[in-house]
Amino acid sequence: MTKLYEVKTPQEWTNLATLVEHTVSGVIELFNAGREGGVDIMWTESTNAPESSAFYRLLKRQKSVVFTVGTQPIWVKSEIQGAKLMVSTPNTSTITLEGKI
Predict the structure, then answer these.
(1) Are 14 and 43 spatial neighbours (Cβ–Cβ below 8 Å)?
(2) Which end of the chain, N or C, is more open, meaning fewer C-beta atoms within 10 Å of its C-beta?
(3) What's the total number of domains in the chain?
(4) In which residue ranges of the chain is pLDDT below 50?
(5) What is the CATH number of the domain that holds 22?
(6) pLDDT of residue 15
(7) Read out DSSP for the chain?
(8) Cα 59 from Cα 65, distance rounded (Å)
(9) Domain range for residue 62?
């Protein structure tokens, strides 16, 4: 993976493109870089800003999710405090390892 952006998540739903100041497309990885005591990051896809009852996914600290961005914007937030979010993209090169066991 190649890191594209490293940002703090706000406590209100924010469009990922607005947060990183760039339109994100294709296959991406969201990584919650929070350490001990860090918070979960909530994320969802929605045409409009999600409401309080909206369905969302949790991204636990030190975990990541890889997916293809669709036509709807990605929205992110953290509940208690800001969390460190890293956005990456897969590398296109292939590495072949050879060896004997």
Answers:
(1) no
(2) C
(3) 1
(4) none
(5) 2.60.120.10
(6) 94
(7) -EEEEEEE--SS-EEHHHHHTS---SEEEEEE---TT---EEEEE-SSPPPTT---EEE-TT-EEEEE--SSPEEEEESSS--EEEEEE------------
(8) 8
(9) 2-89
